[in-house]
Amino acid sequence: MYPATSPLLTDLYQLNMVQAYLDHGQMDTAVFEFFVRRLPARRGFLMAAGLEQAIDFLENLQFSSEEIDWLRKNYRFTDGFLDYLARLRFTGDVDAMPEGTIFFASEPIIRVTAPLPEAQLVETRLINILHFQSVVASKAARMVLAAPGKQLIDFGLRRAHGAEAGLMAARASYLAGFDGTATVLARENFGIPVFGTMAHSFIQAHDDETSAFFEFARSRPDNLVLLIDTYDTEAAARKVVTLAPRLKKEGIAVRGVRLDSGDLIVLSKAVRRILDDGGLHDVTIFASGGLDEDELAKLMDANAPIDGFGIGTSLTTSSDAPAFDCAYKLQEYAGIARRKRSVGKATWPGRKQVWRSFGDDGGMIGDVLALDHDRQAGEPLLVPVMRHGRRLAAPSTLADIRKRAAQGLAQLPWSLRHLSDGTTLPVTVAPGLIALAEEVDRRCAAMM
């Protein structure tokens, strides 16, 4: 059993192509770019995430002797190819959008420049890393915009498609603006704040609800949040009011109550009234249970007195848009621009840069997709990250990434910040890039 960091975590056709490249001496420099072809329905913008894990993968790329032996036993690869893999290290350059950057369709978020076999071999894992975290960060960003000022916690590990997915979802949602996660390992690995309350099973395991509340409070007195919808939500809220003075005498404060089902608008207002009438004005209300950004927006519009939300399935699976139409494509080889021309999947050739312009108020007004050397108005979004196989700077802290993400969301046009369907930021293709595409098309036509 090999770990998730193994270079065998790839598609067989990558290995097939690399042997063919080596057999025919195709070792010149290649340029690949990763981008999203088109935005999913109801997505007016996306957020880049996963760069740190992508760079870590590239920097530590190495086949073990056991992995080489396994390939030798199970596939008909040549000894020369296997010797190449045994010596392989990533030696290329990477330019990328920093994590937390807002991006749009056709804009490369990472550019890999390396000898063709190296740049080809890393395709599958790079897409795997960048795609998933960007999917989750983009979904989380919508929830941040839908519920401004509210506490948002990732509850999604149990519904994630695998352990790594759950862990990376905690990271991606946190950098997008969530306040924390329920996933304990996320604190150990990334320093993300971890939150937890109780499950209905704890209440059910006791003969009465008050005893369950009291015993849990004594065992876990810090940041105490009690789950009150196992049986009768309003009755449970009254029990909390009665119990609170007893707990206070023991130095235990009830910090909040949690709702996990029912009509959250009606119940939250009723519970808030019960708590306030009982003098528990500082006790917060936290809600969970099948929430997404649409539900958050409804609750905000109804002025539901809910202070925070736990988001599970809709976040870690990005249930309405679980995958982006993304690609990692060859844009240049041996100094010559290349272009895919398949119907519906045509690419813009050459090394590219994205230039973003802002209005006087600091808001985004448009992007320009241009060749890397063709300077345009605005700020370039892709920056140097790796040179000759080594990172250029220490990783950005999650705190810095969160600031970048928050700034990007604040700079979105009003319609995008309010999640209006059918709107996005205009992305203009520079004349020089259009001209290069036409030139590549003429060259390809002459070869047919």
Automatic annotation (TrEMBL):
Task: Give the molecular function GO annotations.
Answer: nicotinamide phosphoribosyltransferase activity; nicotinate phosphoribosyltransferase activity
Keyword Manganese tagged:
no
Task: Indicate the enzyme's highest-level EC class.
Answer: ligase
All residue ranges annotated as the Nicotinate/nicotinamide phosphoribosyltransferase domain in the record: 151-332
Q: In which pathway does it act?
A: Cofactor biosynthesis; NAD(+) biosynthesis; nicotinate D-ribonucleotide from nicotinate: step 1/1
* All copies of domain Nicotinate phosphoribosyltransferase N-terminal, residue ranges: 8-130
Its recorded reaction(s) are: 5-phospho-alpha-D-ribose 1-diphosphate + nicotinate + ATP + H2O = nicotinate beta-D-ribonucleotide + ADP + phosphate + diphosphate
**What are its GO biological-process terms?**
NAD+ biosynthetic process via the salvage pathway
**Which InterPro entries is this protein grouped with?**
Aldolase_TIM, N/Namide_PRibTrfase, NAPRTase_N, Nic_PRibTrfase-Fam, Nic_PRibTrfase_pncB, Nicotinate_pribotase-like_C
Could you tell me the EC number(s) of this protein?
A: 6.3.4.21
Q: Which UniProt keywords apply?
A: Glycosyltransferase, Ligase, Phosphoprotein, Pyridine nucleotide biosynthesis, Transferase
PTM summary from the entry reads: Transiently phosphorylated on a His residue during the reaction cycle. Phosphorylation strongly increases the affinity for substrates and increases the rate of nicotinate D-ribonucleotide production. Dephosphorylation regenerates the low-affinity form of the enzyme, leading to product release.
Record's Gene Ontology CC terms? cytosol
Give the protein family. Belongs to the NAPRTase family.
Which NCBIfam families does the annotation name? NAPRTase_put, PRK09243.1-3, PRK12484.1
Q: What does this protein do?
A: Catalyzes the first step in the biosynthesis of NAD from nicotinic acid, the ATP-dependent synthesis of beta-nicotinate D-ribonucleotide from nicotinate and 5-phospho-D-ribose 1-phosphate.
Name the record gives this protein: Nicotinate phosphoribosyltransferase
Q: What is the lineage of its organism?
A: Bacteria, Pseudomonadati, Pseudomonadota, Alphaproteobacteria, Hyphomicrobiales
